[in-house]
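Lab notebook, bench 4. Still working through the backlog of constructs that have no structural model yet. Next entry is a single chain of 200 residues. Request: give me the C-alpha cells for it.
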Amino acid sequence: MFQNIEDASLKLLETIGELEDKNWLLVAISESGEQIAKILSKHLQIPNKRLFLEPVFCQKNSDCEIAMVSEFKTIIIDDVLKEAFQLEREMLLNSIDVIYDYKLMPRVEAIRGNRDNLKIGETVEKVILVDEAVETGLRMETAIATISSVFKIESIYIATPIIPQQMVDFFEPIVEKIFRYDEIELYTEITDYYIDRESV
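Model written out:
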C-alpha cells in the first residue's frame, strides 16, 4: 500500500538504484506515469518525456479496451477480444483513425503546444517506460512497439510501482528488465493500492 504517488515513486526508485551512465531517457506513457517519471528524473538526473497513447473502446462494450494507438499511429489490437466481439478489422481501423485524428492528436497539441511527435536524442541508448501500473498490458505493449520501431531503441526497460504477475511473465522476455516495487497476483484497481491518491 502506498501513501500517495510520491511515496510510490520513491519506493520504485529504490528498485532502480544508480544508473551507470547518462544515456538513459524516462518516457511516461500516461498522466500518472508522467508524475512518477518527473520524480524519478529529479533523483536519477536523467531527462523525462511523454509518449501519448489513446485507448480504443469496443463499440459493443464501452468498458472494454480493444486496441491502443500511439501518437506515431502505432496500433496494437487485442485480437482475442476482436474475435470475441466479431469485429471486422476494417471497421476497427476506421474507428482508430477517428480517435487518432479527433481525440489523440488534439490532446497532444493541447498539452505539448503543437502536434509534433515525441523526439528522442541520438545519444539515448536506453529507454525506461514509466507507468503507474501495468494492467492489461495493451498500453505498455503499444509503447514498446513504438519506441522499438520508430526510434530503433533496443534496450527498453519498464518501471512501475505495481504489476500483476501475469504481466511480468508476458513482458520479461520482451524487455531488458522490469523495475517494480510489488508484484500483484490478483490485480483489482489502482485506487486499492493507495491511501491517498491524488486525482490524475
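Notes after review: The two ends are 18 Å apart (CA to CA). Helices lie at 5-16, 31-44, 79-84, 89-112, 138-150, 165-171. Flag for follow-up if needed.
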